[in-house]
Amino acid sequence: MQLERKIEILTELGEFFKHSLSPEKSSGLKQANIELKAKAFSEAMGIAFHSNAWFTKESVRSAVSAWAKSLEYDKVSKWLSVYDFNNSDKTVGLIMAGNIPLVGLHDLLCVLISGHRVKAKLSSKDNVLMTQIVAALQLIAPELEEKIELNVQMKGLDYLIATGSDNSARYFDYYFKDVTRIIRKNRTSVAIIQGDEKEEELSLLADDIFGHFGLGCRNVTKVYVPQGYDLDLLFKAFFRYQDIANHNKYGNNYDYNKAVYLLNKIDLIENGFLLLKEDENIHSPVGVLFYEYYNSLEELSLKLNLIKDQIQCKVASIEGKEFVPFGKAQSPELWDYADGVDTIKFLSS
After folding, report:
1. Is there a smaller number of Cβ atoms within 10 Å at the N or the C end of the chain?
2. Mean pLDDT of the residues in the chain
3. In this predicted structure, what is the pLDDT of residue 27?
């Protein structure tokens, strides 16, 4: 498959997403049957929560919108033009996560664009949307129809990309010990507050914390604040998310964690929809945001370097490739690879 064809396929998928979100505003689809599939996908977006209560209409639309923006011609061209594809036609196994909508799509596209065949084990939490997208891809690019197998046995693999928990990672490493593999474990994201942020910046940080209910590895679950920082500034900036407590599963998690902490006489700061707990850990449960004071950025940098294998993103208004601006944690570019491992280079190795 030539480079221009790869770019064309991904750009058309982006148009498919745009049409699914706003049919009246999209005119980029080239085939009537793909328009029908986009309509079916749009309907699936509205009912995905029946199989996963975390997948609200807003959460799903947010994920699809992010993909629609990513799969524009200029961005796709920039992403793919740096690679020398060998199109070696290997078999790649994908074991996908389902913690947030479409979280496994990037791996799927990397495999297909690299010219390989894929055996994908969809997460039961995100099989409705992913199945629809695979069907759309096969309409957009009929040459991919024989390249994709869903929910089949992971046999005869040349490569494996598996995403899961620390426990499942140990199983994957053992079971697929003879396969060239990427095994992703638990990761989360942290934010660094310097103390001079504007209210608008802290409001954007709220998106990084509450987007997809905080379930993604790019969600911020821990904030580092300078000594003496007024935590009320955070609550003020986060207030627009107060309705999140009305979501049944989020509300239950919030109430449960609050009860456990209070029973153990642990000091908390809370506002009815978020618990702030001072804690050295970075993985906080749903409904809880850990915070920790620091003395200097230099000291904090050394501390974070010791746990870098647990961190997906560092969110801050600090210049540098290692930092993500406030509000952008859940909007990665196509070249922002999970765990910092270039998937396409891995598949070409």
Report:
1. C
2. 94
3. 61
Q: How far is CA 284 from the centre of its chain?
A: 17
Residues 17 and 145 in one domain: yes
**Domain-embedded: residue 194:** yes
Is the domain of 179 the same as that of 193?
no
Domain total for the chain? 2
Cβ partners under 8 Å of residue 196, min gap 6: none
List the structure tokens of 272: 């009815």
d(CA 299, CA 29): 52
Same domain, 13 and 40: yes
Question: 């500034």: which residue's tokens?
Answer: 233
| 273-290 average pLDDT score | 98
Among residues 163, 111, 157, the alpha carbon closest in space to that of 137 is found at 111
Instruction: Look at the chain and count its residues.
Output: 349
Question: What would the pLDDT profile of 289-345 be if each residue is shown by its tens digit?
Answer: 999 999 999 999 999 999 999 999 999 999 888 999 999 999 999 999 999 999 999
64 within 8 A of 21, measured Cβ to Cβ: yes
Here the CATH number for the domain that contains residue 303 is 3.40.309.10
Average pLDDT score over residue span 142-154: 94
**Beta strand extents in the chain (DSSP E only):** 91-95, 117-121, 148-150, 159-163, 180-184, 188-192, 220-226, 269-270, 275-278, 288-294, 311-315, 323-324
* Mean pLDDT, residues 263-281: 96
Is 101 found in the same domain as 67? Answer: yes
Residues 6 or more apart whose CB falls under 8 angstroms from that of 154 comprise 93, 95, 119, 121, 160, 176
The answer to whether 339 and 312 are in contact (CB under 8 A) is: yes
**The pLDDT value given to residue 147:** 95
Q: Around Cβ 268, how many Cβ atoms within 10 Å?
A: 13
Same domain for 12 and 159? yes
